[in-house]
Design brief:
Largest sheet of chain A: 9 strands, mixed
CATH class of chain B: Alpha Beta
CATH architecture of chain B: 3-Layer(aba) Sandwich
Structural class of chain B: alpha/beta
Low-confidence stretches of chain A: none
Low-confidence stretches of chain B: 255-260
Shape of chain A: globular
Number of domains of chain A: 2
Strand content of chain B: 25-35%
Strand order of the largest sheet of chain A: 2-3-1-4-5-6-9-10-11
Number of helices of chain B: 7
CATH class of the largest domain in chain A: Alpha Beta
Oligomer: heterodimer
Order of helices and strands of chain B: EHEEHHEEEEEEEEEHHHH
Strand content of chain A: 15-25%
Radius of gyration of chain A: 23 Å
Number of strands of chain B: 12
CATH superfamily of chain B: Class I glutamine amidotransferase (GATase) domain
CATH topology of the largest domain in chain A: UDP-N-acetylmuramoyl-L-alanine:D-glutamate ligase
Structural class of chain A: alpha/beta
Shape of chain B: globular
Number of helices of chain A: 15
Chain lengths: ~450, ~260
Amino acid sequence: MRFKIELFFGKLIIWFINRIAPHKGTSFPGKFINRLDEKFLGQFRGMDFDKVVFITGTNGKSTMTNLLYHILKKNNYDVVANLEGANQKCGVATTLMKNATFSGRVKGEYFLFEIDERSLHQIYRYIPAKHMVITNIQKDQVQRNGDPDFIVRHLESVINNDMILYLNNDEPRSKYFEEKSRWVHYFGVEKNDFSYHKTGPWDISMPCPRCARPIEFAFLNIDNVGQFSCPFCGFASEENPKTHISQIDFGLGRFVVDEQNFDMPYHVPFMLYNYAGAIAVAKTLGLSIESIASAFSTFINIGGRIETLRYGEKDIKYIRIKQENPETLQSALDSVAADKTEKVFVLGLYEIVDFVPHYTNTFYAYDCDISKLIESNVKKYICFSEYVCYDAALRFLHEGVEPEKVMILPTKDAREIFQAALEQECDNIYLITWLKTFQEIKNFVRQDNKQAQEEEQ
Amino acid sequence: MMEAVKIKAAFLYPDIFCLNGDRGNVMALINTAERLGLHIEVDRINLPDEKIDFAAYDIVYVPSGELKYVILVSQAIKEQCENIQEAIAGGTVFLLTGTGIALFARKIIRHDGAIYRGLGIANFDCKERTTVYGDDLVFSARVFGKEMEITGCQIAMIDTLLDKETTPLGKVLYGYGNCGKSDEGLWMQNVILTNALGPVLIKNPWLTTAMIEGVLANKNIAIELPKISWDIEESSAKKIKEFIEKKEKPTILSNVRRGK
């Protein structure tokens, strides 16, 4: 009875939030109810745990969850999922409340949840999912996650022999979980036009999770993800992973899995592992490879990382990064470096203000290789932010960029940043910063474009 | 450039450690030396199984790493402990940052209570924290006779517990330091252990310069180094201080807010 009352109140909060702010409230109702009743999450009925998929790991959780949801929906399945990225216990509780009857029965054939790595043990206690995807375990949000091994230990406390594990065949820390279950489905990505080797004097590999010696990569598809082996203990990528993306053609936007052609929704290397993971799960859930492929051409990633703004003759290409996450910064830098035309590069690393104490970490920029960016014809580097712009500038200067090419703007004023970028004699502008500043810049561009149109009329 | 002066540095186990952009510290060593008119040659040591002639180096740098790997490396190089001690006695400057500190500890206590032996180079122990604590770190220190203020960040995965007679590197002005009290790091002869990340040598070229001066003094090389302007680094430190003064300070409620 208590559960039903709590559920009723939870639904009431959801209804109320939907009335006043429809896009908010993805986790608050769950947070509120979980505080009243710690075991609330475990009292929903109607969920077949064999049809529950958890997707966890450092990068790619949201995209893979969204893609798998899209594949299942396109194949007419009734799917419950937390697509808005609320991936902690409260977010999962909110999703279930939204999809449950007043008696607490959840309606759905499949249940997909993106799960925060640190919250997995809190959620698994109540929802013992049969299917567990580990995308990758990388450096990320060090103030919260410490180091990758800290996260590995959190996951180790949950991963067990009864799960079907979906492991990234090309990422050593993900693959290391293979010893924890008898059901392992490896997914991987073949060498392609964007694959590379690390050969520079500053390049860093990673420790073998088994023997602590350096891992060697035959090639890399993204940073520290690629076909690997440890020459000391033999830990290595499987030669024939069950789901293997091959014949990758970025020009045509196509790849092949199990002899089936797939359209690539986004032509960027870091997305390939999201495609591979989603295909791996969909195959295991019983979908045919043809029906999986048919869904790919219509997939749109919610909250994609790349956006272009047109202002007069200038193109401002914005690439979103996750703060304190070197892999997303590296992918963003690589995207900029792929454009060899003359450009202005605007970088706004920010103070980390996720929770108290706020702090000024920018050291993850030194985990990234910026040499390709420097060789890609950057005319001017603009480093901005109220407090850490000097640190961002030092990153370029220590890599050998001439001081006169680096402009430092100690401001968070979006108009000032925007003006500085526009004043450069170059129409090709790349901006990497957090979403808030970009939204402000976007508002200026919209207002000014609107004003210009009105004046023309 | 004073070509005759050769400084040799060893960069230890970058593929195994290097958790927090630490390779920036090696960039800082090379670039700072260059601005001072000197040349530093850096050897990258990748394997803990490799026997190292520590005394052949003027500077040895150990970056931060995951504790699991610090322990495994410590076990792999324990045979070389004497060589390290000889090198320290001979004047080699050692810099250990972040959790790399634990390599020189007597013992490393994991969160589950398991105890591992470190190299025991200095009189201190490291105890793994059950939670992560990340914050800015500002401390005053005296390095090779130079007074300085050092700014960085800290990701505290361990508490560093110094014996009473062990000398800390500095006094915490803001931040967590060794274990939330006033001590930061450890200073022993020419060994510098610090929790400061940043990378610390990038953000504090005065520390880098002091280390280089320490090397020159050990080599009995008396040359006057040029005065360098560190405008950008000073502006950075000033901005970080402004940020610290304005920011919301951690309270007992902080962990509640972050959902612990």
